[in-house]
Amino acid sequence: MTKYLVVGAGLFGATFAFEAAKRGHEVKVIEKRGHLAGNIYTKEVHGIQVHQFGAHIFHTSNKKIWDYVNQFAEFNRYTNSPVANYNGEIYNLPFNMNTFNKLWGVITPKQAQAKIDEQRSILAGKKPENLEEQAISLVGTDIYEKLIKGYTEKQWGHKTTELPAFIIRRLPVRLTYDNNYFNDSYQGIPMGGYTQIVEKMLQHENITVELNKDFFAKKEEYLRDYDKVVFTGMIDEFFDYKLGELEYRSLRFETEVLDEDNYQGNAVVNYTDAKTPFTRIIEHKHFEFGKGEKNKTVITREYPADWKRGDEPYYPVNNKENNALYKTYKQLADTQAQNVIFGGRLGQYRYYNMDQVIGAALVTVDKEFEG
Ligand code: UDP
Q: How far apart are the first and last CA of the chain?
């Protein structure tokens, strides 16, 4: 039997704790915030599950991970179909025939493709090397200007020419009239919210949980008292930033309860112009098809923010420089912290989706317990 300390009660930590406890190990989970579930935390307000840290839509093409997460909650059939508001003009996302039709009046896929080809010709066949080039190469200059540039520069606090191309490849481009934001085989929102998933994972006689506990207040003691530590915080903070700071992006959320039934008619509306200071407004009840009290709705505006020490980090900024610095921290971890497992978006400095977090935790579990 091994004594594990899991630092952080988010999806990575909880998945690891659940699997370790199932195998008879003793697990203590500490969490610096006053609630479980990290950034997937949801809370009921007026019968509506409010995503306290931004929209979370579970999607995966991995049947094993879909079945795995369905142990802990029943999922509804929600399909994410955000709309973009560009200075009052409304477009469907992701980029598909509805978007192309609204923008250019084209009707057929051939016409849309011809328009994209005409606009991307400014790249003269150059292989895209940054987000701007990648975006133009995928959808042409009009969509880049109206739906990508302003949003992306607000979101990341960098020029699109300084950002990696992979970020825009997260979004599908389709020559069909299909507004599904994801290409995955499985998608949905847990009925009753996400928090229950982590609660159920941690409900085991071998697991104890302590909230409001800061690992760094007693780091040396923790490292001494436990056989192994699973650390899901920021890897650079773990090492006291001694090789330098990794870059993160932070967010600020402004949540309001409104005395009306339906504020914006969709769960997610992106504001893609450069001037509006927030990137999106989510109206939580639409994740569960309008469930909740009548004449009440909860909306959240999401403002991107620079990150500095002490702020909540939400996104790693995975450009070349930061990835190179992460690699040096990873080497440090491999050589000087052999009893520590680093996991999750912050521990592994990767822009993971929820299914990838569970996948990464299960890979760690396999390595740890099955050799
Ligand atoms: N994006 C955009 N316009 C949009 C939505 C997304 O340009 O209306 C770009 C933006 O660069 C963003 C990236 O696509 O960071 C990935 O979007 P996604 O919705 O996957 O971001 P997340 O929900 O993880 O913040």
A: 15
> Per-residue pLDDT tens for 2-33?
999 999 999 999 999 999 999 999 999 999 99
**What number does the ligand 1 atom closest to the CA of 147 have?**
3
Nearest to 252 by CA among 322, 353, 154, 354: 154
Query: How distant is the alpha carbon of residue 293 from its chain centre?
Result: 28
| Nearest atom in ligand 1 to 160's CA | 11
Domains, the chain, ordered by start: 3-52+190-245+316-370 (3.40.50.720), 100-174 (no CATH)
Cβ neighbours of residue 313 under 8 Å, at least 6 residues apart?
234, 248, 249, 250, 307, 346
CA of 152 to the centre of ligand 1 (A): 7
Distance between CA 254 and CA 241 in Å, rounded? 30
Mean pLDDT of 193-197: 98
Which residues touch 256 (CB under 8 Å, ≥6 apart)? 298, 299, 300
Tens of pLDDT along 224-269? 999 999 999 999 999 999 999 999 999 999 999 999 999 999 999 9
